[in-house]
């Protein structure tokens, strides 16, 4: 009955649920429009946007002056739709003068109270997004109905205001460190006859309520706004007026967007707020008009007499091609130019030498705190516009370009990403326009500070900006672009401000396309090669042992089978490049920081960057290439010659701050795999400090650093630690302020070379083959033991079941854990293609070896169980023959108790040792590991520890047998000598292999470490590789002595004093089984068949007689 009722109710509710799911009161499923979309998209608007324009009467009243000045609009619907992205701006500036009615509060409790001047100042930013333009019936109109959203924010990190695709109602958000307000507007768009476009709009806002408490201020409630259930007190207000004014044509001095946000209420009204002023600029959707200020630009950048500065030295190594616009397109607004200290300032006025060029830094004290060193100060280049042209007199024309950009100075405490997105114009921005001449390699521009249109051209446009693109590098010149800002009139108000864009070597070919061809072709001048050669000679005295090692080992060198020299050098440069974590060398016992080391090769010999051969697909071209390539047989003098090399070394971590970035130049010796480099580091110091250090610096850099990099050999990589070593030291005298405090010595984690990547599984294959061989030997030994006890049934009960159980447990662990991983790996292989870098994980050889290993482990496990079964049955039959004397039958209870106690004691000692050693190691925060396919897995420490100790117990598998031999006082040989010697040798082989290999601590390519031996375990440390084999050999020797010595002594005693052995026999039977009996087990079975006294009928165990 209940079920029928529920079905009936469900049938009634189903249509209601369907209707409810399709009901969309806010039409969220309607087409939405990206506010930054171009033309032709307005028809996809949804009801989120106020299309009905219900407040036109208010707009007409408040925007009377704007409407009266509007001219007839002469454009079509496409131009009207293009207004949406053109009139929108992101992260402009807004200010509000001092008054009694601020707009929004700010909760500064995100920073500690004692942060003081070190805390970044909150940034007032504003974003405006046009959401709709009514383009219907344009003919004869002087205004268009428009709507939009304005977001104003005050945030410490500069992330706000965040604007979404559409809005329903205004909102206000307040939390520590950030306040955001979004207001919805509708109004009109007009154009005046004097080159100005105007938006006049009325809007809705959720205004915060101001308190009347004079002591706490208007925003007394805006403290600790992250408390639970906090809701800011707000009031809805529709008396907000926004007026934005745009230039119709974007030029050097006419690009600013100015606006004003005011309240239509009287000052006595609670919703009133003081006027807010907005300042931004036209963006990428507006066309820029060059040539509006040709007279001013020509004065700053004369074509007849180009300006010469000292930033380029002799003028060599500059780009003079015709593709400057293509090169500038590679720069983004996030590219930051570092500001160089005013090292050559010769003014007696400290204030002049500390000035950041023409920029006005009065509102940001963090720049003044650098004391002219400008540490952390940068300049970003925004809104780059470039038009290729030809320059020069008729008949002598050369490639050129017209360029416009905005240079924005970024204080140390402002995030560069935030600065790159800002669009406001002020004292920290320099709008520039100029010309590029390929003949000189100079981009000369006139710079105008802030809003030049409002302040006047003569007052704002007094700066000259010269920019150069470098194509030649050296040890002290590693910038792809360098520039300088000076005054046009030569006044000494500030010294020349130099800035440069440092480039990481990998950026040259990955981003800027430097590959020996277009658009950039780089050269390198080796200025430290002689000094590095002296370093090599001083560090490599002749040694016979070293010479022999060199003859036996091979290190990274140029491939000898490539016809193209640049391809060979590129491959060698890849091998010499390092991106790997590192640890101090030697490893300290106390906690230490593990840096990430990056050594990127910039040039090698004549090659700068990389030059890889194009793929060859046709058989004819492949054959042609094969004929052109020389033979690779043997080692030629050319492949082992010392090469000039330049690189860049970066180290992460506060410990290595003094050497965090080094420009390196020197030589590489392929014979012993060592780099001898001279390092140069930039000096961050106040401008006054450079006057005393100028004589010991080169272009402001300290080049008194020696760096040696030792690479592991390419051969015998499984016997020698495949880690690189880096040693950094200073050549300055003690007491020199620029001397490094101590020598930095690091050792990387294991690395792998280019050719070894194709053979990444070779080590696992070698270890898998060893695993197969050892498992085969173990199976053979167990089989001989099985045959031995079948032939000598009298010794069968004296084989320890605990010993066999330890071996069975050791075999079962990889079966339990490995089978799951095997099936998971097969499932993953069917899920989809793996990343190309992990294709080697599918090696057929590895899969074959892995399957063979699993089968052999299963075979060894089953043989061990068979041995245990026969021992167990023999004891049952022995107990059946002597039921009144169970003490006569060997028992493993005490053996297990003693063995367990010994292992428990050893385990506690190991845990204590680990605890003590962990005190000096860094804390491992991650609780997971990544497999070869890049998937993350949970790290179960208890399982790892258990598996480790099971392996140790298996190494000492003879311990239970030794204890049993003592307890049972054996007079026989339960274990065949070949059995326990062979199994002991099998267990010792991994330790011998590991000891000879000197295995690294971590294998970065496989989460499961090694198939053959896990060298990261404490049991496989250098001490364990010696102690464990000695203990195992001692146990094997004890078994040998127990079986052989006891047997001889007891045998002689039996012949003379047979009665003394009665404690080993039964007093019920009148005779003892003969030790020479050929089938003791069969005799025991016969005795059982005759045992009618205990009610056992005739039975025959086929498994024991077979």
From TrEMBL:
An example Gene Ontology molecular-function term: ubiquitin protein ligase activity
Q: Which domain of life is it from?
A: Eukaryota
Which range is the signal sequence, renumbered to this chain? 1-22
Transmembrane parts of this sequence: 845-868, 895-916, 1019-1041
Membrane topology term reads: Multi-pass membrane protein
| Subcellular localization(s) per the UniProt record | Endomembrane system
The metabolic or biological pathway listed in the UniProt record of this protein is: Protein modification; protein ubiquitination
Keyword terms, alphabetized: Membrane, Signal, Transferase, Transmembrane, Transmembrane helix, Ubl conjugation pathway
What is the first-listed, main subcellular location in coarse terms? Answer: membrane
A Gene Ontology cellular-component term:
endomembrane system
Q: What residues does the DUF2921 domain cover?
A: 59-277, 297-490, 538-742
Could you tell me what this protein is called? RING-type E3 ubiquitin transferase
**Source organism of this protein record:** Brachypodium distachyon (Purple false brome)
Question: Gene name on record?
Answer: LOC100821692
